[in-house]
Amino acid sequence: MTVIPRTPPTVRGLPIVGNMLDLMATPGMRAFLTRAYQQHGPVYQMRVLNTVMTVLAGPEANTFVMKEGHKVMRSEEAWRPNDLELGAQRSMISLDGEQHRLYRRAESRAYSRSHFAANVRPALKVAAEDLTAFQAGADFPVTAFCKSVITKQLARIVVGGTARPYLDDLLKFIQTALMVTVNKQLPRLVLHNPAYQQSKARVLRMVENLIAEHRAHTPEGTGRSPDLLDDVLADAKIHPELWGERDLRLAGLSAFIAGMDTAANSLAFVLYRLHKHPEYLPDIRAEVNAAFRHGTPSAEQLAQCKHLLHFVMETMRLHPIAPAMNRTLTQDIEFGGYHLKAGTNLIIGTTVSHGLERFYRDPETFDPTRFAAPRSEHRQPGAYVPFGVGAHTCAGSGMAEGLIMLNAAAILHTLDRTLPAMYTLKETARPTPSPDTKLVLKVGQVRHAAASLLA
Question: What pLDDT shows up at residue 3?
């Protein structure tokens, strides 16, 4: 009779802090989880201060989550505290099962690739507005620019709102809430800070006003195209038991949250890599200039910029914004030769696959050509999962990829920039991985006026 061990191996760490410094160090969580996977296999434990975490990692974990995750895992423990702090009872990310499917169906159209395609010009108008300010010799603060432009684009095209007057409040409110309730990076005491409370109140009032405007001026009455708020307001009439007023408010707020620390941070890493690896710029810039030759490109024309697409994909392979997922077991399972009990909080190391030689040749080397035929290394099952796996795969992946491509192309077409020779990438996670604020490019020359993006 085979005895199944009940305790997975533990990754060695330092006294007191455990593996906390490993998780914080550049190149970040993905690389640490990959090293631990290579040493211990697909299930192991790590410790951060006094908290022991069980990790399921690698392609084995991804396959298990895709096939069995919806039966034996849930997101409530990880994300409900954030819902409550954001003033709601539930959200798409904290729900599972049928309720999750209903929320996802109501919200996904406004984050889809097709919705991006229909709104390329409004999104590009935001980028042009922000790029106009940069002249030769100016500093280009990468992370600040990316957070600003993508948050404003999503506000405009997903809920018909404006983030510009509220950007500082949004950053303070959303990032602080996530770092307290999800990442546990900050103590709950900071939620009582008067400046935080003021930002929270302003943002929630702004979303309430947006909802009121949508109720008063419907697509049927105005002829405008429906957006996210119209979709969830319509669904609330069909499923009133699922949508309280505060849940509707959080759905609207999600448009501002969606790209602030995800697509924006991915774009920041892309801009860093573009200047770290200038050998790829001539081919990328040639296809970008061709796309803008006759003014605003279509989503289809952007998608044909294969050099840029592969560059973005390689950046997201090495710098995934969501390197892992948090879940809680709802029943006992056996995985990787270990017995794990119901109630165990898990970290699913989804992007460990990105660093494995079984999928990628020289996996830690930056090489966008690995995505082109005939190599197409990412097409192996489970090899490339920058947007998560299973029932909670990112609903906005099409929108995110579109905005990253659009903004990278607009910046390349408009400005020449240089990376300071002394800069060394340092990743931070506040709350998701990002280049640090010291990543500041220098504008060399203006290649094309920002207004030409809309010609």
Answer: 59
With beta carbons less than 8 A apart as the criterion, state whether 252 and 229 touch.
Answer: yes
Domain residue ranges of the chain, discontinuous segments joined by +: 20-454
Tell me the CB-side half-sphere exposure of residue 174, using CA atoms within 13 A.
22
When pLDDT is cut at 50, 70 and 90, the band that residue 23 belongs to is confident
What is the β-pairing status of strands 345-349 and 51-57? parallel
pLDDT of residue 195: 98
DSSP 191-218: GG-HHHHHHHHHHHHHHHHHHHHHHHS-
Model confidence at 327: pLDDT above 60: yes
Question: What's the CATH fold of domain 20-454?
Answer: Cytochrome p450 (1.10.630)
Residues in the chain: 455
CB atoms within 10 A of CB 198: 13
Phi, psi of 435, deg, nearest 5 = -60, 150
Number of helices (H), then strands (E), belonging to the chain: the values are 18, 12
Per-residue pLDDT of 381-414, as tens digits, reads 999 999 999 999 999 999 999 999 999 999 999 9
- Please state, in angstroms and rounded to a whole number, the distance separating the CA atoms of residues 192 and 201: 12
146 annotated binding-site participant: no
C-alpha closest to that of 191 among 210, 216, 212, 172: 172
pTM: predicted TM-score of the whole model, two decimal places: 0.96
> Which strands, in side-by-side order, build the sheet including 51-57?
43-48, 51-57, 345-349, 325-329, 73-74
